[in-house]
TrEMBL record:
All copies of domain GST C-terminal, residue ranges: 89-227
Listed PANTHER family: GLUTATHIONE S-TRANSFERASE, PTHR43968
Signal peptide start-end: none
Protein name, UniProt field: Glutathione S-transferase
Family annotation (InterPro entries): Glutathione-S-Trfase_C-like, Glutathione-S-Trfase_C_sf, Glutathione_S-Trfase, Glutathione_S-Trfase_N, GST_Omega/HSP26, Thioredoxin-like_sf
GST N-terminal domain location: 6-84
Gene3D superfamilies (alphabetical): 1.20.1050.10, Glutaredoxin
SUPFAM superfamilies: GST C-terminal domain-like, Thioredoxin-like
Cellular component GO terms held in the UniProt record: cytoplasm
Domain of life: Eukaryota
Amino acid sequence: MATADRNLTFYTHSLCPYAHRVSLCLAEKAIPHKREHIDLSNKPRWYLDLNRRGLVPAIQLDGEVKTESLELNYFLDDVFEGAARLTPDGRKEEMQTLIDSFDGSFISAGLQFVGGGWGFRRGAPGPRQADRMAVECERIERIIEINGNGGPYLMGAEVTLADLALWPFAERYELAMREFQGVELREMGPSGSLSRWIDAMRSRPSVVGLRPDDNKLLASWRRTMRLDYFDYETADVDNP
């Protein structure tokens, strides 16, 4: 169905990595929508009435509310024509399997590397955390080189929902690892495919338009020592 025929509201927090996934999908597909920023530290009553768990991201489409970042992106890519198709022809199941694997292992490895839980620690991680993150980075490179036929994206020459699922966390880990551990994420991929993927993603207009100011974000991270500090105090992408 054409985008002009649908009435979509996107409920988000502009610093949440899960909501970031859906923001990227909406931007890549140029889907018209109304955006509502939710203060997660002080959720409005009307939002809890609309979405009982009060989580982001969520969309309201023609009166029906849907949640969960990955499911929202699958839905949006199927329902809206948009400017691009983000699921490779004949490879939907392969893509979803890839996303599911990263949704657990890469996210968890990165959180442990930078501090454990959603907090940060200063200094080098332990050997176990470092080895686990190195394995994940090497796995990304193998996927790009084999499944993606050399990339630059995870599944080939075009960006897909797999890239959009992984990027919000890679972007945050890259900045946090540099700040708190003195490590460059791109250098953890020995073949260079990870570095090329980061460069390809960083150059996309959707990524550029949604990135907060690094210095402002780092100031908040240093003060709170938490990746998810915005759950506990008012913040947004313009004033992180």
